[in-house]
Automatic annotation (TrEMBL):
Residues 15-150 form the N-acetylmuramoyl-L-alanine amidase domain. One of its GO terms (molecular function) is N-acetylmuramoyl-L-alanine amidase activity. This is N-acetylmuramoyl-L-alanine amidase. InterPro entries: Amidase/PGRP_sf, Amidase_domain, NAMLAA_amidase_2, SH3-like_bac-type. SMART domains: Ami_2. Residues 172-191 are annotated as: Disordered.
């Protein structure tokens, strides 16, 4: 077994997800990839533990600079859609932010440089970026129709080769802080503004999923003109991106206290039935602050294709009302989940209970 001493851990990929050996080739290339995700190194490596995914990498680097080994260097990882490249290459997945340029953090950059220096020293080669597959620094985009490693890393390939080679030559290179796009202004909200939103765009592995729900946080970054220009941070961790529409249609005030009227029920009533399960509505349902038609409308809803985890229900006004604690406000939420029959059974549910 061999992997870099710079790796803090070895989280092996599923045996389904890489090739034994390197087909007789020796290591003479490095191929940096972008995760299209801000996963930790460990999360990325674990994603390659899923059997049948048919993808892996020799290393994963997180935004905090952590390096995790995933496929033993003696083996060919399945990363770059090219047999000859990956047989000869140490492949590295690197976490990036969720911007159009897929920028990587300064810590991830420094970890990448260090890992490249270590690999080049051990296998005895230098980084040569030729812009095509003949060089010793290659990119996924040279082999298939992909943006990988993303515009940012792509633009940094010559710099990566230069820094790594300088280190191999014994030159002291100050740790680089790769330039990141300056924080643009010109959007409605600015950095550090506390917000609530009902829309969160999360782009992992290019899935570009947009979730509807109920989140609060602080704007951590603004990308002017982006579809989802605001990065939402919670406790210092980016949870996704949102836009003006998502923020404006969310009526509650961060840190605001719940309105104390009979149309709000935050406590557990005596007729509450505890049940932890997930509800998948097949129609659009309003989320209220009390289990009654008179309960305050939060302005949010769940609809077909979404799901909610609830912790119990009551039967009132001819309906079953499921309930849960809002993750963002800590308040109890209520939503109709079906019509009761004359015997009080939920024979006409508004979706699936799992
Ligand atoms: Zn890639």
């Amino acid at each position: 077994m061999s992997y870099s001493r710079l790796a803090s851990k070895y989280i092996p990929a599923s045996a389904d997800n890489y090739m034994r050996g390197r087909g007789g080739y020796k290591v003479c290339k490095i191929t940096p990839h972008h995760m299209a995700c801000q996963w930790s190194a460990e999360t990325c490596a674990r994603s390659f533990q899923v059997a049948g995914r048919e993808a892996s990498a020799n290393y994963c680097i997180g935004s905090d600079g952590t390096i995790v080994a995933n496929v033993d260097e003696e083996n060919r990882a399945w990363t770059s859609s090219n047999y000859y490249n990956d047989c000869q290459s140490i492949t590295i997945e690197i976490a990036n932010d969720n911007t159009d340029t897929w920028t990587i953090s300064p810590k991830a950059w420094n970890a990448l440089v260090n890992l490249c220096v270590d690999v080049c020293k051990r296998y005895g080669f230098r980084l040569n970026y030729t812009g095509n597959a003949n060089g010793s620094l290659t990119e996924h985009r040279m082999f298939t129709a992909t943006a990988c490693p993303g515009p940012y890393l792509h633009s940094k390939m010559p710099q990566l080769a230069q820094e790594v080679n300088a280190r191999l030559d014994g030159q002291t290179v100050a740790p680089t802080q790769p330039s990141s796009p300056s924080t643009p202004s010109g959007e409605k909200y600015s950095v550090s503004t506390p917000i609530c939103t009902n829309t969160l765009s999360v782009n992992c592995y290019g899935t570009g999923k947009v979730y509807k729900g109920d989140w609060n946080g602080t704007i951590g970054r603004v990308i002017k003109g982006a579809k989802y220009p605001y990065r939402v941070d919670r406790n210092g961790v980016a949870i996704g991106w949102t836009n003006d529409t998502g923020i404006d249609t969310d009526p509650h005030i961060p840190g605001g206290s719940a309105q104390s009227t009979p149309t709000v029920l935050n406590s557990i009533p005596s007729d509450f039935n505890r049940e932890s399960a997930t509800f998948y509505p097949n129609i659009t349902l309003k989320i209220r602050k009390a289990p009654t038609e008179k309960g305050i409308d939060t302005g949010f809803y769940y609809s077909n294709g979404m799901s909610v985890q609830y912790d119990g229900y009551v039967k009132r006004e001819g309906f079953v009302w499921i309930s849960w604690i809002s993750a963002s406000t800590g308040e109890r939420r209520w939503m109709k989940a079906g019509v009761l029959n004359s015997k009080g059974y939920n024979t006409n549910p508004y979706g699936r209970f799992v």
